Amino acid sequence: MIKKIEKVALFGGTHGNELTGIYLIKKFLKNPHLLKRETLKVFPFLSNPKAIELSVRYTEIDLNRCFASEDIENLDNILYEQLLAKTIHQKLRDNQINFLVDIHSTTSAMGLTIILSDQNDFHLQLCSYLSLIYPELKVLYYVSNETNKLLRSNTELGLTIEVGAIPQGVLEAELFIKTEQLIYSLLDFLDKYNHNEIEKKSHNLVVYEVFERIDYPRDGEEVIAMIHPNLQSKDYQAINFGDPLFITFNGEIITYQGDSNVYPVFINEAAYYEKSIAMCLTRKREITVTFNPIQ
Amino acid sequence: MIKKIEKVALFGGTHGNELTGIYLIKKFLKNPHLLKRETLKVFPFLSNPKAIELSVRYTEIDLNRCFASEDIENLDNILYEQLLAKTIHQKLRDNQINFLVDIHSTTSAMGLTIILSDQNDFHLQLCSYLSLIYPELKVLYYVSNETNKLLRSNTELGLTIEVGAIPQGVLEAELFIKTEQLIYSLLDFLDKYNHNEIEKKSHNLVVYEVFERIDYPRDGEEVIAMIHPNLQSKDYQAINFGDPLFITFNGEIITYQGDSNVYPVFINEAAYYEKSIAMCLTRKREITVTFNPIQ
After folding, report:
1. Which residue in the set B26, B177, B270 is minimally distant from A167, CB to CB?
2. A293 pLDDT exceeds 90?
3. Chain B residue with minimal CA distance to A224?
4. % pLDDT > 90, chain B
5. Which residues contact B133 (CB under 8 A, 6 or more apart)?
6. Is the peptide bond before A165 cis (omega within 30 degrees of 0)?
7. Per the CB < 8 Å rule, is B249 touching A27?
8. DSSP per residue over B226-282, as a string?
9. pTM of the entire predicted model
Protein backbone atom coordinates (compact mmCIF):
# COMPACT_ATOMS: atom_id res chain seq x y z
CA MET A 1 0.00 0.00 0.00
CA ILE A 2 1.56 3.23 -1.20
CA LYS A 3 0.42 6.72 -0.33
CA LYS A 4 0.03 9.38 -2.95
CA ILE A 5 2.99 10.06 -5.21
CA GLU A 6 3.38 13.79 -5.43
CA LYS A 7 6.96 14.65 -6.27
CA VAL A 8 8.63 12.94 -9.20
CA ALA A 9 12.22 13.42 -10.37
CA LEU A 10 13.30 12.56 -13.92
CA PHE A 11 17.02 12.20 -14.50
CA GLY A 12 18.96 12.09 -17.78
CA GLY A 13 22.70 12.25 -18.25
CA THR A 14 23.63 10.15 -15.22
CA HIS A 15 26.05 8.86 -17.85
CA GLY A 16 27.16 11.83 -19.94
CA ASN A 17 27.40 9.97 -23.26
CA GLU A 18 23.87 8.51 -23.22
CA LEU A 19 22.16 11.16 -25.29
CA THR A 20 18.56 9.89 -25.22
CA GLY A 21 17.97 10.86 -21.60
CA ILE A 22 20.03 14.03 -21.90
CA TYR A 23 18.06 15.43 -24.83
CA LEU A 24 14.74 14.32 -23.32
CA ILE A 25 15.52 16.23 -20.12
CA LYS A 26 16.64 19.25 -22.16
CA LYS A 27 13.32 19.09 -24.00
CA PHE A 28 11.40 18.90 -20.69
CA LEU A 29 13.38 21.80 -19.20
CA LYS A 30 12.41 23.93 -22.22
CA ASN A 31 8.80 22.65 -22.28
CA PRO A 32 7.72 22.08 -18.66
CA HIS A 33 4.04 21.90 -19.70
CA LEU A 34 4.76 18.45 -21.20
CA LEU A 35 5.26 17.09 -17.67
CA LYS A 36 2.21 18.76 -16.08
CA ARG A 37 -0.19 16.37 -14.40
CA GLU A 38 -2.85 17.55 -11.97
CA THR A 39 -1.62 15.72 -8.87
CA LEU A 40 2.11 15.69 -9.62
CA LYS A 41 5.07 17.97 -9.34
CA VAL A 42 7.70 16.72 -11.79
CA PHE A 43 11.34 17.83 -11.65
CA PRO A 44 13.57 17.17 -14.68
CA PHE A 45 17.31 17.05 -13.88
CA LEU A 46 20.52 16.68 -15.89
CA SER A 47 22.53 14.48 -13.53
CA ASN A 48 26.13 15.12 -14.61
CA PRO A 49 26.47 18.32 -16.69
CA LYS A 50 30.28 18.11 -16.68
CA ALA A 51 30.28 14.58 -18.18
CA ILE A 52 27.54 15.67 -20.61
CA GLU A 53 29.68 18.61 -21.75
CA LEU A 54 32.59 16.24 -22.40
CA SER A 55 30.32 13.50 -23.84
CA VAL A 56 31.90 10.89 -21.55
CA ARG A 57 30.23 8.38 -19.23
CA TYR A 58 31.85 10.08 -16.22
CA THR A 59 34.85 12.28 -15.48
CA GLU A 60 36.43 10.46 -12.50
CA ILE A 61 34.16 7.69 -11.24
CA ASP A 62 30.83 6.27 -12.40
CA LEU A 63 28.20 8.57 -10.82
CA ASN A 64 25.74 5.68 -10.83
CA ARG A 65 27.92 3.81 -8.32
CA CYS A 66 28.30 6.72 -5.83
CA PHE A 67 25.01 6.70 -3.91
CA ALA A 68 25.55 4.12 -1.13
CA SER A 69 24.76 5.83 2.20
CA GLU A 70 28.24 5.17 3.54
CA ASP A 71 29.73 6.82 0.43
CA ILE A 72 27.40 9.82 0.60
CA GLU A 73 28.35 10.29 4.26
CA ASN A 74 32.08 9.75 3.75
CA LEU A 75 33.74 13.16 3.91
CA ASP A 76 36.92 11.79 2.35
CA ASN A 77 35.08 10.97 -0.90
CA ILE A 78 36.07 13.96 -3.00
CA LEU A 79 36.20 12.71 -6.58
CA TYR A 80 33.99 14.88 -8.79
CA GLU A 81 31.12 12.39 -9.12
CA GLN A 82 31.30 11.51 -5.40
CA LEU A 83 30.77 15.18 -4.55
CA LEU A 84 28.03 15.46 -7.16
CA ALA A 85 26.24 12.45 -5.66
CA LYS A 86 26.10 14.15 -2.25
CA THR A 87 24.47 17.21 -3.82
CA ILE A 88 21.95 15.19 -5.82
CA HIS A 89 21.09 13.17 -2.71
CA GLN A 90 20.50 16.41 -0.77
CA LYS A 91 18.41 17.87 -3.60
CA LEU A 92 16.16 14.79 -3.62
CA ARG A 93 15.67 15.05 0.14
CA ASP A 94 15.05 18.80 0.12
CA ASN A 95 12.45 18.42 -2.61
CA GLN A 96 10.90 15.40 -0.85
CA ILE A 97 10.97 13.39 -4.07
CA ASN A 98 9.04 10.14 -3.72
CA PHE A 99 9.38 8.70 -7.21
CA LEU A 100 12.56 8.71 -9.31
CA VAL A 101 13.07 7.83 -12.96
CA ASP A 102 16.63 7.50 -14.29
CA ILE A 103 16.87 7.39 -18.11
CA HIS A 104 19.72 5.39 -19.64
CA SER A 105 20.66 3.98 -23.01
CA THR A 106 22.71 0.91 -23.87
CA THR A 107 24.64 -0.43 -26.85
CA SER A 108 22.81 -3.74 -26.25
CA ALA A 109 19.66 -4.44 -28.26
CA MET A 110 17.37 -4.19 -25.24
CA GLY A 111 14.63 -2.21 -26.95
CA LEU A 112 12.44 -0.46 -24.40
CA THR A 113 13.29 -1.85 -20.95
CA ILE A 114 12.26 -0.90 -17.43
CA ILE A 115 14.71 -2.03 -14.75
CA LEU A 116 13.29 -2.65 -11.30
CA SER A 117 15.35 -3.16 -8.18
CA ASP A 118 12.24 -3.79 -6.11
CA GLN A 119 9.24 -5.94 -7.06
CA ASN A 120 6.71 -4.35 -4.79
CA ASP A 121 3.08 -4.36 -5.93
CA PHE A 122 3.13 -0.73 -6.87
CA HIS A 123 6.05 -1.13 -9.28
CA LEU A 124 4.56 -4.28 -10.76
CA GLN A 125 1.19 -2.61 -11.24
CA LEU A 126 2.87 0.33 -12.95
CA CYS A 127 4.81 -2.00 -15.24
CA SER A 128 1.63 -3.94 -16.05
CA TYR A 129 -0.13 -0.71 -16.97
CA LEU A 130 2.76 0.32 -19.22
CA SER A 131 3.20 -3.09 -20.83
CA LEU A 132 -0.47 -3.08 -21.85
CA ILE A 133 0.16 0.20 -23.70
CA TYR A 134 3.61 -0.83 -25.02
CA PRO A 135 3.53 -4.58 -25.71
CA GLU A 136 7.23 -4.51 -26.71
CA LEU A 137 8.22 -3.21 -23.23
CA LYS A 138 10.42 -5.57 -21.24
CA VAL A 139 10.64 -5.59 -17.44
CA LEU A 140 14.00 -6.52 -15.96
CA TYR A 141 14.48 -7.22 -12.27
CA TYR A 142 18.12 -6.57 -11.49
CA VAL A 143 19.51 -6.68 -7.96
CA SER A 144 23.23 -6.93 -7.33
CA ASN A 145 25.68 -5.93 -4.63
CA GLU A 146 25.76 -2.55 -6.40
CA THR A 147 22.03 -1.84 -6.26
CA ASN A 148 22.37 0.42 -3.20
CA LYS A 149 24.97 2.51 -5.07
CA LEU A 150 22.62 3.55 -7.88
CA LEU A 151 21.00 6.96 -8.30
CA ARG A 152 17.72 5.03 -8.34
CA SER A 153 18.32 3.88 -4.73
CA ASN A 154 17.81 7.39 -3.34
CA THR A 155 14.04 6.99 -3.12
CA GLU A 156 11.81 4.13 -2.04
CA LEU A 157 9.93 4.17 -5.33
CA GLY A 158 11.16 4.51 -8.86
CA LEU A 159 12.79 2.75 -11.76
CA THR A 160 15.42 2.92 -14.44
CA ILE A 161 14.56 3.17 -18.12
CA GLU A 162 17.12 1.48 -20.38
CA VAL A 163 16.79 1.74 -24.17
CA GLY A 164 18.92 0.34 -26.96
CA ALA A 165 20.72 -0.49 -29.09
CA ILE A 166 22.12 3.04 -29.20
CA PRO A 167 25.86 3.76 -29.51
CA GLN A 168 27.33 6.11 -26.92
CA GLY A 169 27.26 9.70 -28.15
CA VAL A 170 24.41 9.07 -30.61
CA LEU A 171 20.76 10.10 -30.81
CA GLU A 172 18.42 7.50 -32.26
CA ALA A 173 15.08 9.06 -33.18
CA GLU A 174 12.82 6.02 -33.00
CA LEU A 175 13.88 5.09 -29.45
CA PHE A 176 13.92 8.76 -28.41
CA ILE A 177 10.25 9.09 -29.38
CA LYS A 178 9.28 5.79 -27.74
CA THR A 179 11.10 6.70 -24.51
CA GLU A 180 9.35 10.07 -24.43
CA GLN A 181 5.94 8.41 -24.84
CA LEU A 182 6.77 5.88 -22.13
CA ILE A 183 7.56 8.69 -19.69
CA TYR A 184 4.27 10.44 -20.43
CA SER A 185 2.37 7.18 -19.83
CA LEU A 186 4.28 6.65 -16.59
CA LEU A 187 3.28 10.12 -15.38
CA ASP A 188 -0.31 9.40 -16.48
CA PHE A 189 -0.30 6.26 -14.34
CA LEU A 190 0.99 8.12 -11.27
CA ASP A 191 -1.65 10.79 -11.75
CA LYS A 192 -4.41 8.21 -12.20
CA TYR A 193 -3.14 6.38 -9.15
CA ASN A 194 -3.35 9.56 -7.09
CA HIS A 195 -6.89 10.05 -8.36
CA ASN A 196 -7.72 6.45 -7.46
CA GLU A 197 -8.61 5.90 -11.11
CA ILE A 198 -6.56 2.81 -11.93
CA GLU A 199 -8.90 0.12 -13.14
CA LYS A 200 -9.09 -2.91 -10.85
CA LYS A 201 -8.01 -6.00 -12.72
CA SER A 202 -5.30 -8.61 -12.73
CA HIS A 203 -2.71 -8.98 -15.44
CA ASN A 204 0.04 -11.45 -16.23
CA LEU A 205 3.35 -9.62 -16.33
CA VAL A 206 6.57 -11.19 -17.63
CA VAL A 207 9.62 -10.27 -15.56
CA TYR A 208 13.20 -11.18 -16.54
CA GLU A 209 15.24 -11.69 -13.37
CA VAL A 210 19.04 -11.35 -13.50
CA PHE A 211 20.74 -14.22 -11.67
CA GLU A 212 24.28 -14.18 -13.06
CA ARG A 213 26.79 -11.99 -14.84
CA ILE A 214 29.27 -13.43 -17.31
CA ASP A 215 32.61 -11.79 -18.14
CA TYR A 216 34.49 -11.96 -21.42
CA PRO A 217 37.12 -14.66 -21.63
CA ARG A 218 40.36 -12.89 -20.63
CA ASP A 219 44.09 -13.44 -20.41
CA GLY A 220 44.85 -11.44 -17.27
CA GLU A 221 42.86 -8.25 -17.85
CA GLU A 222 43.01 -8.52 -21.63
CA VAL A 223 39.82 -9.55 -23.44
CA ILE A 224 40.57 -12.52 -25.73
CA ALA A 225 37.14 -13.16 -27.25
CA MET A 226 34.13 -11.35 -28.68
CA ILE A 227 30.40 -11.99 -28.39
CA HIS A 228 29.62 -14.71 -30.96
CA PRO A 229 27.80 -13.36 -34.04
CA ASN A 230 24.82 -15.69 -33.36
CA LEU A 231 24.34 -14.04 -29.95
CA GLN A 232 25.00 -10.39 -30.94
CA SER A 233 21.82 -8.26 -30.64
CA LYS A 234 19.81 -11.24 -29.36
CA ASP A 235 18.95 -9.80 -25.94
CA TYR A 236 15.88 -11.44 -24.32
CA GLN A 237 16.14 -14.49 -26.62
CA ALA A 238 16.57 -17.89 -24.96
CA ILE A 239 19.95 -19.61 -24.97
CA ASN A 240 20.46 -23.25 -24.15
CA PHE A 241 23.28 -25.53 -23.08
CA GLY A 242 25.85 -25.72 -25.89
CA ASP A 243 24.88 -22.50 -27.69
CA PRO A 244 27.82 -20.32 -28.78
CA LEU A 245 28.55 -17.36 -26.48
CA PHE A 246 31.95 -16.12 -27.59
CA ILE A 247 34.41 -16.41 -30.45
CA THR A 248 38.09 -15.85 -29.66
CA PHE A 249 40.29 -13.68 -31.86
CA ASN A 250 41.70 -16.94 -33.19
CA GLY A 251 38.27 -18.24 -34.18
CA GLU A 252 37.63 -20.72 -31.35
CA ILE A 253 34.01 -20.90 -30.23
CA ILE A 254 33.14 -20.90 -26.52
CA THR A 255 29.74 -22.34 -25.73
CA TYR A 256 27.28 -21.93 -22.90
CA GLN A 257 27.57 -24.70 -20.30
CA GLY A 258 24.78 -23.74 -17.89
CA ASP A 259 21.05 -24.41 -17.56
CA SER A 260 18.87 -24.17 -20.62
CA ASN A 261 16.19 -21.52 -21.19
CA VAL A 262 18.01 -18.55 -19.82
CA TYR A 263 17.67 -15.12 -21.41
CA PRO A 264 20.77 -12.93 -21.77
CA VAL A 265 20.55 -9.14 -21.59
CA PHE A 266 23.15 -6.34 -21.69
CA ILE A 267 24.92 -8.36 -24.40
CA ASN A 268 28.02 -6.40 -25.51
CA GLU A 269 27.28 -3.19 -23.60
CA ALA A 270 30.24 -0.84 -24.26
CA ALA A 271 30.48 0.47 -20.70
CA TYR A 272 30.55 -3.03 -19.20
CA TYR A 273 33.89 -4.10 -20.69
CA GLU A 274 35.57 -2.28 -17.77
CA LYS A 275 33.05 -3.77 -15.33
CA SER A 276 33.84 -7.33 -16.48
CA ILE A 277 30.34 -8.00 -17.77
CA ALA A 278 29.84 -9.45 -21.27
CA MET A 279 26.16 -10.15 -20.56
CA CYS A 280 23.72 -10.73 -17.71
CA LEU A 281 21.74 -13.96 -17.60
CA THR A 282 18.08 -13.85 -16.61
CA ARG A 283 15.26 -16.25 -15.97
CA LYS A 284 11.80 -15.46 -17.28
CA ARG A 285 8.97 -15.44 -14.76
CA GLU A 286 5.31 -14.68 -15.20
CA ILE A 287 3.67 -12.85 -12.32
CA THR A 288 -0.03 -12.25 -11.82
CA VAL A 289 -0.37 -8.64 -10.78
CA THR A 290 -3.47 -7.39 -9.02
CA PHE A 291 -4.07 -3.77 -8.33
CA ASN A 292 -3.95 -2.50 -4.75
CA PRO A 293 -5.93 0.72 -4.38
CA ILE A 294 -4.48 3.74 -2.66
CA GLN A 295 -4.40 3.62 1.12
CA MET B 1 53.10 3.36 -62.74
CA ILE B 2 54.10 2.36 -59.25
CA LYS B 3 57.32 0.68 -58.27
CA LYS B 4 57.40 -2.27 -55.95
CA ILE B 5 55.62 -1.90 -52.59
CA GLU B 6 57.96 -3.29 -49.97
CA LYS B 7 57.15 -1.72 -46.62
CA VAL B 8 53.58 -1.66 -45.39
CA ALA B 9 52.31 -0.12 -42.15
CA LEU B 10 49.00 -1.20 -40.59
CA PHE B 11 47.54 1.15 -37.97
CA GLY B 12 44.77 0.51 -35.46
CA GLY B 13 43.73 2.71 -32.56
CA THR B 14 44.22 6.04 -34.31
CA HIS B 15 40.99 6.62 -32.42
CA GLY B 16 41.31 4.89 -29.06
CA ASN B 17 37.66 3.79 -28.77
CA GLU B 18 37.45 2.02 -32.15
CA LEU B 19 38.16 -1.50 -30.96
CA THR B 20 38.13 -3.38 -34.29
CA GLY B 21 41.45 -1.98 -35.47
CA ILE B 22 42.95 -2.05 -31.99
CA TYR B 23 42.28 -5.77 -31.42
CA LEU B 24 43.30 -6.64 -34.99
CA ILE B 25 46.67 -4.94 -34.48
CA LYS B 26 47.07 -6.66 -31.09
CA LYS B 27 46.39 -9.98 -32.84
CA PHE B 28 48.97 -9.19 -35.54
CA LEU B 29 51.57 -8.14 -32.95
CA LYS B 30 51.12 -11.50 -31.21
CA ASN B 31 50.98 -13.48 -34.48
CA PRO B 32 53.35 -11.79 -36.94
CA HIS B 33 53.30 -14.84 -39.23
CA LEU B 34 49.76 -13.84 -40.27
CA LEU B 35 51.19 -10.81 -42.07
CA LYS B 36 54.09 -12.60 -43.78
CA ARG B 37 54.16 -12.24 -47.56
CA GLU B 38 57.25 -13.06 -49.61
CA THR B 39 57.90 -9.58 -51.02
CA LEU B 40 56.56 -7.48 -48.14
CA LYS B 41 57.68 -6.23 -44.78
CA VAL B 42 54.54 -5.42 -42.77
CA PHE B 43 54.61 -3.30 -39.59
CA PRO B 44 51.55 -3.36 -37.30
CA PHE B 45 51.22 -0.27 -35.06
CA LEU B 46 48.88 0.84 -32.29
CA SER B 47 48.60 4.54 -33.10
CA ASN B 48 47.51 6.08 -29.79
CA PRO B 49 48.16 3.74 -26.82
CA LYS B 50 47.19 6.41 -24.28
CA ALA B 51 43.74 6.95 -25.85
CA ILE B 52 43.37 3.16 -26.21
CA GLU B 53 44.11 2.72 -22.50
CA LEU B 54 41.41 5.27 -21.66
CA SER B 55 39.03 3.98 -24.38
CA VAL B 56 38.53 7.51 -25.71
CA ARG B 57 38.79 8.82 -29.26
CA TYR B 58 41.71 11.06 -28.23
CA THR B 59 43.07 12.63 -25.07
CA GLU B 60 43.59 16.26 -26.17
CA ILE B 61 43.09 16.62 -29.92
CA ASP B 62 42.01 14.24 -32.70
CA LEU B 63 45.25 12.47 -33.74
CA ASN B 64 43.81 11.97 -37.21
CA ARG B 65 43.82 15.74 -37.75
CA CYS B 66 47.46 16.31 -36.65
CA PHE B 67 49.50 15.25 -39.70
CA ALA B 68 49.58 18.37 -41.91
CA SER B 69 53.26 19.14 -42.69
CA GLU B 70 53.00 22.60 -41.14
CA ASP B 71 51.62 21.05 -37.94
CA ILE B 72 54.27 18.34 -37.82
CA GLU B 73 56.97 21.01 -38.23
CA ASN B 74 55.44 23.45 -35.76
CA LEU B 75 57.52 23.29 -32.58
CA ASP B 76 54.80 25.06 -30.61
CA ASN B 77 52.36 22.17 -31.17
CA ILE B 78 52.71 20.36 -27.87
CA LEU B 79 49.31 18.78 -27.19
CA TYR B 80 49.71 15.05 -26.61
CA GLU B 81 48.40 13.92 -29.99
CA GLN B 82 50.37 16.65 -31.79
CA LEU B 83 53.58 15.30 -30.26
CA LEU B 84 52.54 11.75 -31.03
CA ALA B 85 51.92 12.68 -34.68
CA LYS B 86 55.50 13.95 -35.01
CA THR B 87 56.84 10.63 -33.70
CA ILE B 88 54.59 8.53 -35.96
CA HIS B 89 55.59 10.66 -38.95
CA GLN B 90 59.28 10.13 -38.13
CA LYS B 91 58.75 6.38 -37.64
CA LEU B 92 57.13 6.09 -41.08
CA ARG B 93 60.04 7.94 -42.69
CA ASP B 94 62.71 5.96 -40.83
CA ASN B 95 61.11 2.68 -41.86
CA GLN B 96 60.61 3.94 -45.43
CA ILE B 97 56.97 2.87 -45.41
CA ASN B 98 55.44 3.10 -48.86
CA PHE B 99 51.93 1.80 -48.20
CA LEU B 100 49.78 2.69 -45.18
CA VAL B 101 46.50 1.19 -43.98
CA ASP B 102 44.58 2.93 -41.19
CA ILE B 103 41.77 0.84 -39.65
CA HIS B 104 38.73 2.67 -38.30
CA SER B 105 35.21 1.83 -37.23
CA THR B 106 32.07 3.96 -37.33
CA THR B 107 28.67 4.01 -35.67
CA SER B 108 27.22 4.48 -39.18
CA ALA B 109 26.02 1.40 -41.06
CA MET B 110 28.80 1.59 -43.65
CA GLY B 111 29.55 -2.13 -43.73
CA LEU B 112 32.99 -2.79 -45.16
CA THR B 113 34.27 0.45 -46.69
CA ILE B 114 37.60 1.51 -48.17
CA ILE B 115 38.18 5.25 -48.13
CA LEU B 116 40.50 6.64 -50.81
CA SER B 117 41.88 10.15 -50.83
CA ASP B 118 43.59 9.55 -54.17
CA GLN B 119 42.08 7.84 -57.22
CA ASN B 120 45.33 6.82 -58.88
CA ASP B 121 45.31 3.68 -61.02
CA PHE B 122 47.09 1.63 -58.41
CA HIS B 123 44.50 2.32 -55.71
CA LEU B 124 41.64 1.70 -58.13
CA GLN B 125 43.16 -1.56 -59.29
CA LEU B 126 43.61 -2.69 -55.68
CA CYS B 127 39.99 -1.79 -54.87
CA SER B 128 38.79 -3.65 -57.98
CA TYR B 129 40.71 -6.73 -56.92
CA LEU B 130 39.22 -6.55 -53.41
CA SER B 131 35.67 -5.84 -54.57
CA LEU B 132 35.76 -8.96 -56.76
CA ILE B 133 36.57 -11.00 -53.63
CA TYR B 134 34.19 -9.02 -51.35
CA PRO B 135 31.17 -7.94 -53.41
CA GLU B 136 29.74 -6.06 -50.41
CA LEU B 137 32.85 -3.82 -50.22
CA LYS B 138 32.16 -0.14 -50.87
CA VAL B 139 34.76 2.33 -52.15
CA LEU B 140 34.43 5.89 -50.91
CA TYR B 141 36.44 8.74 -52.38
CA TYR B 142 36.65 11.43 -49.74
CA VAL B 143 38.75 14.56 -50.15
CA SER B 144 38.22 17.57 -47.93
CA ASN B 145 40.28 20.46 -46.61
CA GLU B 146 41.30 18.07 -43.83
CA THR B 147 42.69 15.30 -46.08
CA ASN B 148 46.29 16.47 -45.61
CA LYS B 149 45.87 16.23 -41.82
CA LEU B 150 45.10 12.51 -41.79
CA LEU B 151 47.47 9.75 -40.70
CA ARG B 152 46.82 8.30 -44.16
CA SER B 153 48.46 11.35 -45.78
CA ASN B 154 51.93 10.42 -44.52
CA THR B 155 52.62 8.15 -47.49
CA GLU B 156 51.94 8.48 -51.19
CA LEU B 157 50.05 5.17 -51.25
CA GLY B 158 47.53 3.72 -48.86
CA LEU B 159 43.95 3.81 -47.71
CA THR B 160 41.61 3.90 -44.75
CA ILE B 161 39.40 0.97 -43.82
CA GLU B 162 36.12 2.05 -42.22
CA VAL B 163 33.71 -0.59 -40.86
CA GLY B 164 30.32 -0.27 -39.17
CA ALA B 165 27.88 0.01 -37.62
CA ILE B 166 29.92 -0.56 -34.45
CA PRO B 167 29.40 1.50 -31.28
CA GLN B 168 32.47 3.10 -29.78
CA GLY B 169 34.08 0.84 -27.20
CA VAL B 170 32.54 -2.33 -28.66
CA LEU B 171 33.89 -5.38 -30.52
CA GLU B 172 31.60 -6.76 -33.19
CA ALA B 173 32.74 -10.24 -34.24
CA GLU B 174 31.30 -10.41 -37.74
CA LEU B 175 32.91 -7.16 -38.89
CA PHE B 176 36.13 -7.99 -37.03
CA ILE B 177 36.47 -11.22 -39.04
CA LYS B 178 35.59 -9.53 -42.33
CA THR B 179 38.07 -6.72 -41.73
CA GLU B 180 40.80 -9.23 -40.93
CA GLN B 181 40.13 -11.12 -44.17
CA LEU B 182 40.10 -7.88 -46.14
CA ILE B 183 43.56 -7.00 -44.80
CA TYR B 184 44.95 -10.42 -45.76
CA SER B 185 43.55 -10.01 -49.28
CA LEU B 186 45.03 -6.53 -49.49
CA LEU B 187 48.48 -7.89 -48.55
CA ASP B 188 47.99 -10.71 -51.09
CA PHE B 189 47.34 -8.12 -53.77
CA LEU B 190 50.48 -6.14 -52.91
CA ASP B 191 52.54 -9.33 -52.95
CA LYS B 192 51.06 -10.43 -56.29
CA TYR B 193 51.68 -6.96 -57.66
CA ASN B 194 55.34 -7.15 -56.65
CA HIS B 195 55.53 -10.54 -58.34
CA ASN B 196 53.88 -9.09 -61.46
CA GLU B 197 51.17 -11.68 -61.03
CA ILE B 198 48.04 -9.50 -61.16
CA GLU B 199 45.89 -10.72 -64.00
CA LYS B 200 45.43 -8.20 -66.81
CA LYS B 201 41.80 -7.35 -67.22
CA SER B 202 39.44 -4.44 -66.92
CA HIS B 203 36.73 -4.16 -64.30
CA ASN B 204 33.89 -1.75 -63.57
CA LEU B 205 34.36 -0.32 -60.10
CA VAL B 206 31.69 1.72 -58.32
CA VAL B 207 33.11 4.68 -56.39
CA TYR B 208 31.04 6.89 -54.08
CA GLU B 209 32.46 10.42 -54.15
CA VAL B 210 31.79 12.79 -51.24
CA PHE B 211 30.74 16.23 -52.49
CA GLU B 212 29.04 17.77 -49.44
CA ARG B 213 28.75 17.50 -45.68
CA ILE B 214 25.50 18.30 -43.88
CA ASP B 215 25.33 19.38 -40.25
CA TYR B 216 22.52 18.73 -37.80
CA PRO B 217 19.95 21.53 -37.52
CA ARG B 218 21.16 23.59 -34.55
CA ASP B 219 20.15 26.49 -32.36
CA GLY B 220 23.55 28.08 -31.79
CA GLU B 221 25.74 25.08 -31.02
CA GLU B 222 22.87 22.99 -29.66
CA VAL B 223 21.60 20.14 -31.85
CA ILE B 224 17.82 20.48 -32.28
CA ALA B 225 17.04 17.49 -34.49
CA MET B 226 17.92 13.83 -34.97
CA ILE B 227 18.49 11.73 -38.08
CA HIS B 228 15.01 10.76 -39.31
CA PRO B 229 14.16 7.08 -38.62
CA ASN B 230 13.70 6.45 -42.37
CA LEU B 231 17.30 7.51 -42.99
CA GLN B 232 18.95 5.86 -39.94
CA SER B 233 21.29 3.01 -40.98
CA LYS B 234 20.60 3.64 -44.68
CA ASP B 235 24.15 4.54 -45.68
CA TYR B 236 24.83 4.10 -49.43
CA GLN B 237 21.10 4.14 -50.25
CA ALA B 238 19.85 6.83 -52.63
CA ILE B 239 17.94 9.82 -51.31
CA ASN B 240 15.93 12.16 -53.47
CA PHE B 241 14.50 15.67 -53.28
CA GLY B 242 11.85 15.78 -50.54
CA ASP B 243 13.01 12.71 -48.60
CA PRO B 244 13.10 13.15 -44.79
CA LEU B 245 16.57 13.85 -43.36
CA PHE B 246 15.91 14.97 -39.79
CA ILE B 247 13.18 15.03 -37.17
CA THR B 248 13.32 17.79 -34.56
CA PHE B 249 12.79 17.04 -30.87
CA ASN B 250 9.32 18.52 -31.35
CA GLY B 251 8.49 16.13 -34.17
CA GLU B 252 8.93 18.42 -37.21
CA ILE B 253 10.36 16.73 -40.27
CA ILE B 254 13.14 18.39 -42.27
CA THR B 255 13.44 17.15 -45.83
CA TYR B 256 16.24 17.04 -48.35
CA GLN B 257 16.10 19.93 -50.82
CA GLY B 258 19.04 19.12 -53.09
CA ASP B 259 19.62 17.06 -56.22
CA SER B 260 18.12 13.60 -56.46
CA ASN B 261 20.08 10.35 -56.51
CA VAL B 262 22.68 11.21 -53.95
CA TYR B 263 23.98 8.59 -51.51
CA PRO B 264 24.55 9.60 -47.88
CA VAL B 265 27.30 8.01 -45.79
CA PHE B 266 28.58 8.57 -42.24
CA ILE B 267 24.93 8.96 -41.20
CA ASN B 268 24.81 9.58 -37.42
CA GLU B 269 28.50 8.91 -36.70
CA ALA B 270 28.99 9.56 -32.96
CA ALA B 271 32.33 11.34 -33.35
CA TYR B 272 30.99 13.74 -35.97
CA TYR B 273 28.50 15.56 -33.73
CA GLU B 274 31.42 17.72 -32.55
CA LYS B 275 32.66 18.09 -36.12
CA SER B 276 29.26 19.38 -37.29
CA ILE B 277 28.65 16.50 -39.69
CA ALA B 278 25.32 14.64 -39.60
CA MET B 279 26.14 12.87 -42.85
CA CYS B 280 28.26 13.15 -45.99
CA LEU B 281 26.57 13.20 -49.39
CA THR B 282 28.13 11.28 -52.25
CA ARG B 283 27.54 10.72 -55.94
CA LYS B 284 27.92 7.25 -57.38
CA ARG B 285 30.29 6.86 -60.30
CA GLU B 286 31.28 3.78 -62.24
CA ILE B 287 34.90 3.66 -63.36
CA THR B 288 36.44 1.19 -65.77
CA VAL B 289 39.70 0.12 -64.20
CA THR B 290 42.45 -1.43 -66.28
CA PHE B 291 45.55 -2.91 -64.78
CA ASN B 292 48.89 -1.17 -65.28
CA PRO B 293 51.76 -3.59 -64.87
CA ILE B 294 54.70 -2.84 -62.65
CA GLN B 295 57.28 -0.42 -64.04
Report:
1. B270
2. no
3. B23
4. 94
5. B185
6. yes
7. yes
8. EE-TTTTT-TTS-B-TT-EEEEETTS-EEE--S-SSBEEESTT-GGGTTTT-SEEEE
9. 0.95
